[in-house]
Amino acid sequence: MNDNTQHILQKNAVLDGKYTVMLFIKRGRNAETYRVRGTDRKLYFLKLFNVAQAHHTAFDSNGNLLEIEFLKNIEHPNIVSYKDSGETIIDGKKYLYSVLNFIAGETLLERIIREPVTMLYEIRQVLSDVLNGLQYLHSLPEQIIHNEITPQNIMLDLSGETPKAVIIDFGYARSFAQPSKAYNKDGLNLHYVASECITSGMFSPQSDLFSVGAVMYQMLFGMLPWNTSDTWKPVSLQETREKPLPFPDVVGRIIDFDDSILKIITKALSSDTEKRFRSADEFLQTLNGNIVIDEVKTSPDKSATAGQSGKPAVHRKTGRGFASIAGMNELKEMLQSDVIDIIRNPEEYRRHGLGLPNGMLLYGPPGCGKTFFAERFAEEAGYNFKKVITSDIASIYVHGTQEKIGKLFDEARKSAPAILYFDELDAMTPSRDNAQHSYGSEVNEFLSQLDNIGESGVFVIASTNKPQLIDKAILRAGRLEKHFYIPPPDFEARRAMFELYLKERPIDFGIDYEHLANLTENYVSSDIKFIVDEASRKTIREKSQRITMETLETVLRMQKPTISPDVLKQYEVTRMEMEGVKVKQERPRIGFK
After folding, report:
1. Furthest-apart CA pair in the chain: how many Å?
2. For a tag site, which of 133, 145, 432, 443 has the least CB within 10 Å?
3. Looking at the DSSP assignment, which residues form a beta bridge with residue 119?
4. What CATH number is attached to the domain comprising 516?
5. pTM for this one?
6. CB-CB contact of 511 with 502 (8 Å)
7. How does pLDDT run across 90-102, given as a tens digit for each residue?
């Protein structure tokens, strides 16, 4: 279609006998979006995809459009919700379509253009909603990276008493488990894209958080970070971002302005991934004032590694250790006797001719607190602590990743006693039987560093949602030989979590924590946090003074566990396999029923 004023569907056209076109909204690279009315008389958004124009990476191995498949399985108040989908033929061409529930409001971009933001509270409110949505996406069993968090892809739902931010448009969304070549960069707005995504194709949950930082900057200052032009080219991206971030004076314009917001933006937009927010939850906690950022430079640090920057790469974990973990007593006792007692009393074990353990693996469903366990373990042992994620060891250079792995272990040895914690190890050391050839040298380097690392006063902890994908040599005796399953929180843990999350909030009399724990069997830790947060939001919307038991129960009825019983059953099978129990597989039936 050469005429840009023409649309594929005209007003009053009826699609599949179900949806009548009311209004054309926008055109993308391979899709058009419309407001439609269903046969139920309700309004919806309909997105029509031209299959022939879609990038090949937009489809899964079965030929299904990823955007539609993702939306079918997503359910979160801060993410646009799925209604229907199908395919149709128009003028001899094949089109796919998705139907999404209508959002009465405007995009964040329209809001910024219409009227500059004047309250810091509004910025915090919008970004808290977006981060809650991203936290959900990044915690799914198959993590989803949105890849296009921009003001145009954030809708402000104005149907309630207070605006609610909703993430829309999953055209560039991909599974974190997909290889880098599956991430299509064509047409992305580079102002909101992290540098490593362009230079090395390293899209990750962290790169989504960079985009949130760029949106935050635009809301506060009314312009894009680094004040770049719309013709910004990839070749100048890295060079431009090495320059200091400009912070115009907005004290007189922004009500309740606080300098801490500048520290948050600086951290979110750092060119050094080591200095950025590690997760949506950390970003959210900092935005809400629960975590305070130390003084940071407004210019990104150009040091090549943390060891050269003057700040210790490995730091001491201080806290209450296992006392901070409610319930899970059996697991804590196992960790205490099988690992901590040994590394605390090495001479006694050496006297018996026993070597020190080198490491352990924490595995289980997402959202169950594997990272939390690792941090509390470090506190209990009194060790220094260093967390490592995939982007920390990624490199565009040949053998660059091996060199980074070696440096990490060298830093840990110098900081002994220390714990090196590798989050999502399956992405760093996949099985050499199935992975690309390039991973072989990285896995070999990791194995080499693991050998006898315990004798250096370093203990390695790794976590994963998919232990079956890790190279088996890493999990053998003498390496990460201890394997601990981290299940959804038990009754005592759930009860304590409700008490903890509600402790600092205005609550009504009569909160029955035991009843709440009973109602949330199979809910993971992040689910419980979301339930309490949503109860707070509901209380504010209804202009109530306190969170009531009734409010919590109402939210609970609406919020199902993010991990289904079938998925939990599969994790139990994985647990049995990891413990060496042979799982009997059902044989297919032969013959007639």
Report:
1. 85
2. 432
3. 255
4. 1.10.8.60
5. 0.52
6. yes
7. 988 999 999 999 9
Q: How far apart are CA 188 and CA 317, in angstroms?
A: 39
Cis peptide before 561 (omega within 30 of 0): no
- CA–CA separation, 394 and 428 (whole Å): 9
**In the block, residue with structure tokens 């991934």:** 273
CATH number at residue 321: 3.40.50.300
Nearest to 140 by CA among 84, 205, 59: 205
pLDDT tens digits, one per residue of 226-237? 765 444 455 456
Amino acid at 402: Q
Q: What are phi and psi of 22, to 5 degrees?
A: -100, -40
Within a domain: 473: yes
**Residues 538, 505 share a domain:** yes
Residue 576 lies in a domain: no
Rounded Cα distance between 384 and 548, Å, is 42
Last residue of a domain, one of 240, 272, 301: 301
Residue 345 lies in a domain: yes
Instruction: List beta partners, residue 175.
Output: 144
Residues 289 and 366 in one domain: no
Could you tell me if 48 and 76 lie in one domain?
yes
CATH code for the domain in which residue 150 is found: 1.10.510.10
Is there a single domain that holds both residue 144 and residue 156?
A: yes
Report the distance separating Cα 32 and Cα 29, nearest Å: 8
Picking from 384, 432, 386, the residue whose alpha carbon sits closest to that of residue 405 is 386
Looking at the structure, do residues 495 and 542 belong to the same domain, yes or no? yes
Q: CA 404 from chain center: how many Å?
A: 24
Strands 174-175 and 164-167 turn out to be unpaired
Helical H segments across 290-389, by residue range: 329-335, 341-344, 346-351, 370-381
| Cα 37 to Cα 225: distance, rounded to the nearest angstrom | 39
CATH number of the domain to which 54 belongs: 3.30.200.20
- 344 and 457 co-located in one domain: yes
* Number of H-type helices and E-type strands within the chain: 21, 17
Separation between Cα atoms, residue 240 and residue 243, nearest integer Å: 6
573 domain residue, yes or no: no
Give the integer Cα–Cα distance in Å for 366 and 326. Answer: 18
Q: Are residues 438 and 501 in the same domain?
A: no
Judged against a pLDDT cut of 80, whether residue 560 lies above it is answered with yes
Can you give the residue range of the structural domain that contains 258?
105-301
* Strand extents, DSSP E, 122-221: 144-145, 154-157, 164-167, 174-175
Full DSSP string of 405-467: HHHHHHHHHHT-SEEEEESSHHHHSB-TTTS-TTHHHHHHHHHHHHTTGGGGTEEEEEEES-G
Q: Give every CB contact of residue 121 below 8 A, 6+ residues apart in sequence.
A: 255, 256
**Rg of the chain on CA atoms, in Å:** 25
Closest residue by Cα to residue 47 from 91, 92, 8 = 8
pLDDT in tens, 294-345: 654 443 333 333 333 333 345 555 567 777 776 677 788 888 888 888 877 7
Query: Is the domain of 249 the same as that of 354?
Result: no
